[in-house]
Amino acid sequence: MIKFAYTILYVSDVEKSVAFYEKAFPFTTKFISPDSTYAELITGETTLSFAHKSLAASNLPEGFQESSLSSKPFAIEIGFTTDNVEALVKQSIEAGATLVAPPKQKPWGQTVAYVRDIDGFLIELCTPMG
């Protein structure tokens, strides 16, 4: 048996990132470590986690590429589905997200928009498929 359990974003300030996601999206904190170097949000089936960049450095001795709003996003995105993309885009921007692409209806009928979080990670906000 295998199951997609979580995604970890390496960030500069775990508590600040968690606060952004709680304000921008309807998620709640599941856990924050006592030293604030790791946290998890309840997002549904898959946990969204945050770890301080110092943990990444200790886990990846050859280094890693940090996410930043000053550089292009990585070739990966986090996707959140919603019935109201426009409202969620507005709420996320009010919380501090940066708009990348406004809501657009795709040929297959799905509405899709893109924002970047406060650490520069790319987020797709979209209606559910079919």
TrEMBL record:
Family annotation (InterPro entries): Glyas_Bleomycin-R_OHBP_Dase, Glyas_Fos-R_dOase_dom, GlyoxalaseI/FosfomycinResist, VOC_core
Gene3D superfamilies: 2,3-Dihydroxybiphenyl 1,2-Dioxygenase, domain 1
Coiled-coil spans in chain: none
Sequence ranges assigned to domain VOC in this UniProt record: 3-128
Protein name per Swiss-Prot or TrEMBL: VOC family protein
Species annotation: Flectobacillus longus
Upper taxonomic lineage: Bacteria, Pseudomonadati, Bacteroidota, Cytophagia, Cytophagales
